[in-house]
Design brief:
34% of the residues lie in helices and 23% in strands. It is of the alpha+beta class. It has one domain (15-180). Pfam families: PspAB (PF22742).
């Protein structure tokens, strides 16, 4: 950051640190012990899809990589688009194999980033459920390098007390997003 940036109050955005994703398995243990939430085995990556041969080729390589793993016990990756036009890749693993799921998400993010499509990456999420079967997602914001909890309720509402409880429980395990206005709702995200 230069002198003029400081003078005019501009800040440098945090660099994404995809290795932060590998903190999720230990955070899941903390989450389970404190709140009873268990992994569902589903995780997804959201990105802004762009047209073009290079992007289509990278996307196909990522699908092939994850689908090849389905031959060793994982489920094939599912792709979809949401109502806003964003693309999602959903990976499923056995709930007890959270490290493999995190590796899948890391592989997708890394492949897109290494191919020059990092700016298209938006977020990754891993889903959990409580004893009441209500869902919870731990969302990784690619451009911020931080996590936040998202606890949807029926009718496009959020369970804010639950989200704040999870933030307090995981503050020592994950780099939690401090700006609550960046805790975006992900209604209908694959895997939730």
């Amino acid at each position: 950051m230069g002198f003029w940036d400081v003078l005019f109050g501009r800040s440098k955005p945090a660099r994404p640190d995809l290795d932060q994703l590998f903190a999720l398995p230990s955070a899941a243990i903390t989450l389970q012990a404190a709140t009873g939430f268990l992994p569902t085995g589903a995780g997804s990556v959201c990105f802004a899809a762009i047209e073009g041969g290079a992007f289509a080729e990278v996307r196909q390589e990522v699908r092939a990589l994850l689908d090849a793993d389905s031959e060793r016990g994982g489920a094939p990756v599912e792709s979809s688009r949401d109502a806003y036009g964003y693309a999602w890749l959903l990976s499923r693993r056995p709930p007890e194999d959270l490290p493999a799921l995190v590796s899948d998400l890391h592989a997708v993010n890394s492949a897109l980033q290494d191919s020059g499509f990092g700016p298209q990456l938006l977020c990754s999420l891993v889903t959990f459920h409580g004893a009441d079967q209500r869902p919870l997602a731990l969302v990784y914001l690619y451009k911020r390098g931080t996590f936040y909890p998202f606890a949807p309720l029926p009718g496009n509402k959020r369970d804010n007390p639950r989200e704040l409880q999870v933030r307090a429980v995981l503050k020592d395990d994950l780099r939690i997003e401090q700006d609550l206005t960046r805790w975006f709702p992900l209604w209908g995200a694959p895997g939730l």
